[in-house]
Amino acid sequence: MTKLKIASWNINSVRARAGIVERLLCEEAPDILCLQETKAMDSVFPAELFHRLGYRHQLLNGQKMHHGVAIVSKLPLHDDLRHDWQDNGEARHVGARLDCGLRIENVYIPAGGDIPDRTLNPKFGQKLDFLERMTKWSEKLAEPTLIVGDFNIAPLDCDVWSHKALVDVVSHTPIEIEALGRLQAAHGWVDLGRQFIPAPARNFTWWSYRASDWAASDRGRRLDHMWVSPQLAGQATGHSVLEPVRGWEKPSDHVPLVVELAL
């Protein structure tokens, strides 16, 4: 049996927040960390920090000032894949296979702008098209897979601080939720966040920087997700949302998710 601990985190600039990344790795000691929104070209990614902490296997898909994803691992990573689901070259995906056969897919789905109408807001259309390309990929997927990342969609009414206030706000609109539902159904993906923290329990992963006191206002959304192929659902032994990290010094607006698997 192989026991794995895998973390996922939209870090909102890996170089600006290198200190709390190091703290997370020292405190949680995951075998693998998937990062989104690294905002760094591969040439300036802080690879040595991760090397020093034992994460010598690294797959980087960086972009200057925007987007960017990375997988850093204590275990060998194979079959480096980058799907251009955005269809414009943006660095939003990187995937790998482990020696045990598990595939890990790390994705940063576009936020989609402010107006939930693709005719008025091309960014919203790009988000929906991104999800459609992921859906077509999922339909053909046969390998046992863990997909993690910032999906930028809170699908359930209880995944936001107020469904009534946010139902017309990008990230929680019916059209996005429907698109995400089609993606989930295409492979039978199991949502670990709700397998371990069943609805309607509170389960947020993101709080805006705009709040003067994010914890007191608690206007959160569940934008970050971990999904597994259906055959892996029973092998997930733990899942946690590290909410206290939002209160660390110079934090990301997202918090890390951690899953433990027994394969």
Describe this structure in words.
It is a single chain. The chain has 263 residues and is of the alpha+beta class. It has a single domain (3-112, 144-159, 188-262), classed as Deoxyribonuclease I, Chain A (4-Layer Sandwich). 24% of the residues lie in helices and 25% in strands. It contains 7 helices and 14 strands. It has helices spanning 18-28, 47-52, 122-139, 163-166, 174-187, 192-196, 214-217; strands at residues 3-10, 32-36, 57-61, 69-73, 78-81, 93-97, 103-108, 145-150, 190-191, 206-207, 220-221, 224-228, 236-241, 257-262. It has a 6-stranded mixed β-sheet. Helix 3 (122-139) packs parallel to helix 5. The longest helix has 18 residues, at 122-139. It is globular, with a radius of gyration of 17 Å. The model has no long low-confidence stretch (mean pLDDT 97).
